[in-house]
Specification:
Largest interface: A-B, 28 and 20 residues
Radius of gyration of chain A: 13 Å
Helix content of chain A: under 10%
Structural class of chain A: mainly beta
Number of helices of chain B: 0
Distance between the termini of chain B: 37 Å
Radius of gyration of chain B: 14 Å
Shape of chain B: globular
Distance between the termini of chain A: 37 Å
Strand content of chain B: over 45%
Number of strands of chain A: 11
Order of helices and strands of chain A: EEEEEEEEEEE
Oligomer: heterodimer
Strand order of the largest sheet of chain B: 1-9-8-3-4
Largest sheet of chain B: 5 strands, mixed
Chain lengths: 116, 112
Amino acid sequence: GAVVSQHPSWVICKSGTSVKIECRSLDFQATTMFWYRQFPKQSLMLMATSNEGSKATYEQGVEKDKFLINHASLTLSTLTVTSAHPEDSSFYICSARDYGARYGYTFGSGTRLTVV
Amino acid sequence: LAKTTQPISMDSYEGQEVNITCSHNNIATNDYITWYQQFPSQGPRFIIQGYKTKVTNEVASLFIPADRKSSTLSLPRVSLSDTAVYYCLVAPVSYNNNDMRFGAGTRLTVKP
């Protein structure tokens, strides 16, 4: 089945630095990818929709200059958290749609970001 | 995206059947109903998807009444490893669907 690989699985960074998270579709092409943020014991919150070759569409309240999304190829989307602060610490998850599969959406394993 | 409502939490015991109901009163004609399972610190995992009536696979069944305003995920004979959060998602399965917002989910705890 469709596999989405997300790296790193966890990262610790200092305040003020930037962190890049990669999301790759391994055996299919993903025109559209989704980025989520999840706080402990809460649901997934959609941050942005990433379309290959075009600018990402951000949800209301999500700072596009802080959460940079690049979807330069059909198999790779990246999320860069710029000038990270402790409040950015969270679990970030990506998802991709395999249009060749009926059931569609596959999720990455998530990235635990801790900003110290 | 059709808004979904699920119970916040449910408890069960090993070996029992668990039914989790999701309400989606404003579901659209082209919407499908998909259920996901999520363990702590992992991404959601697809369980089952349906449009109407009943769908069954090796891990669960999905019951959808004729009016499609609700759906019920049925997990037969649960085990401790089924303790997780279960999400009901209602959205079109179409090329240009970019609306993948999750509801609150149901936290299932299976006790020995």
